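Narrative of activities, Objective 1.

The group set out to show that a structural description can be obtained from nothing but a protein's sequence at a throughput compatible with the screening campaign. Below is one input-output pair from the validation batch, recorded exactly as produced.
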Amino acid sequence: QVQLVESGGGLVQPGGSLRLSCATSGFTFSSYALNWYRQAPGKEREFVAQISTLGVLTNYAETVKGRFTITRDNAKNTVYLQMNSLKSEDTAVYYCAAARRLGDVPNYWGQGTQVTVSS
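Output recorded for this entry:
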């Protein structure tokens, strides 16, 4: 059974930092590109970041470039999203997702974790 379980969300003040984790099981983690998406209230889900199977290639949405960093640990079957200099507009539910190749539509999705940036 495929599982992707996000954690690390919460309430943080503007300018603060959070580190999201996504622990996975049930598929060959090292063979999949990993992605983070987010969905704010009343908006469509949007791409945030992605990382290739070995972690060599990464891509980011322009809105988070320079503030967020995606990494992965293939030994732990876990992907991370370090979020710095958070803004109110980063408030959303964050989802991790696994795709067979970088740029593909994800095959597997987590249930999401809430991130709220507010003073």
